[in-house]
Amino acid sequence: MVLKLYLDYMSQPCRALDMFMKMSKIPFVVHPVALRKGEHRQDWFKKITPLRKVPVLQDDNFYLTESIAMVRYLAGSYPTEALYPKNLKLRAKIDEYLEWQHVNTRILSSKVFLIENLKIPLEPLETAVENMEKMLYQLETMFLKDKDFIAGDQLTVADIFAICELMQPTMSGRDIFEGHPKLREWFQRAKAATQPHFNEAHAVFNASAARVQNKL
Ligand SMILES: N[C@@H](CCC(=O)N[C@@H](CS)C(=O)NCC(=O)O)C(=O)O
To answer: In which domain of life is the source organism classified (predicted)?
Structure first.
């Protein structure tokens, strides 16, 4: 049976997985799970994952949650060398970012998105923006440094996860790279290196962003 990816294109790890699999030429089918319609809370999805979160990868009767675990699982059986190389030190640098991003890039950019767009009062927007700024500074100085991409001179899955997460706080038209010219250049470089998959994976997000920005 062909692999199945349960996803919602509004979700950052879902978009990253979709791009990673397509760029690695891994055959799979998409099973959409519309979060805004609450489909992830329906009984059929709860049977697949009690966590009720997307993405979920299905390989026959094997189900896997957690996007980074999926990257590692797929790397065991598919040609992912270009985006997730086996070289120990290179892979360790990619993993270093993938471990860091959960509670940094992801949480801190998501918070700005959730407060600004979904009006969820987690904390004052200024606090969330300040914390996102600190994260962007660390991303630039600890991970990117003077390299073209996070792990070196080639695009890897680390860049794919990073650019998908960093799209989320741009929903309102916010320019998150103001004062971060190096990050802006890297973002554009990574985006160009992942086309046409970046645009395809972000079509739903971009349509939603256009609606939000037209209302402003
Ligand atoms: N650490 C998980 C995060 C999964 C996650 O938080 N998914 C969100 C969408 S981005 C979700 O399904 N949220 C639904 C909910 O929490 O109700 C991964 O990397 O796969």
So the answer is: Eukaryota
Q: Which two tokens stand for residue 107?
A: 């949480």
Give pLDDT tens digits for 26-84: 999 999 999 999 999 999 999 999 999 999 999 999 999 999 999 999 999 999 999 99
Closest CA to 187 of 114, 109, 119, 121: 109
CA–CA dist 195, 118 (Å, integer)? 29
Domains of the chain: 3-75 (3.40.30.10), 88-215 (1.20.1050.10)
For tokens 């979904």, what's the residue? 118
Is any atom of ligand 1 closer than 6 Å to the C-beta of 12? yes
47 forms bridges with which residues in the sheet?
Answer: none
Rounded Cα gap, residues 45 and 34, in angstroms: 11
Which atom of ligand 1 is least distant from the CA of 41? 17
CA of 59 to the centre of ligand 1 (A): 20
What are the residues whose beta carbons fall under 8 Å from the beta carbon of 157, sequence distance 6 or more?
16, 20, 71, 80, 83, 84, 94, 98
